[in-house]
Amino acid sequence: MNDVISLGGRGDAGGVGDGGVGGVGDSGVGDLGGELDPGVVYTASAVPVPLTPVAAAQVVAGAPATGSIDLDEDMGLGIWEMTPGAMRDVEIDEVFVVVAGSATVEFVKPTQPSIELRPGAIVRLEAGMQTVWTVRETLRKVYLA
Predict the structure, then answer these.
(1) 103 CB burial (10 A radius; 0-12, 13-18, 19+)
(2) Of 60, 45, 47, which is closest to residue 98 (Cα–Cα)?
(3) Strand pairing partners for 106?
(4) Which one of 1, 66, 96, 131 has the minimum C-beta count within 10 Å?
(5) Peptide bond preceding 110 in cis form (omega within 30 of 0)
(6) How many degrees, rounded to 5, is the angle at CA 119 between CA 94 and CA 134?
(7) By C-alpha distance, which of 67, 76, 64 is closest to 36?
(8) pTM of the model
(9) Distance between CA 15 and CA 21 in Å, rounded?
(10) pLDDT tens digits, one per residue of 55-81
């Protein structure tokens, strides 16, 4: 049976403090931009994501912070998180699945109906879309870009 592993570390491996993702004994994920081990289950909700305050020019309300961590650069796979508040953004091409939190995404350009995000939601964004993210409960998504 495979172990369930959080990328935050297990055994004697380090965490995010040294810039790494942590590890799993000798076969761990290495540093940021590492690759996931085949056949191993990782827990997206347990991966530490370093957060930084959103730039003032992007803030619409509150004092949100965001952060991301690359799980596999070759695949464009990662985890992104945003704390409560609202911010403007210009999107890249990506597909994501929400694993925690709740938010509303307003599409400013091109104009289209707002969407509600909650765990299990799957969304595709196109490069250049202008959005406003309003997070009510810290939002975490796993993305493929």
Answers:
(1) buried
(2) 45
(3) 132
(4) 1
(5) yes
(6) 70
(7) 76
(8) 0.78
(9) 6
(10) 999 999 999 999 999 999 889 999 999
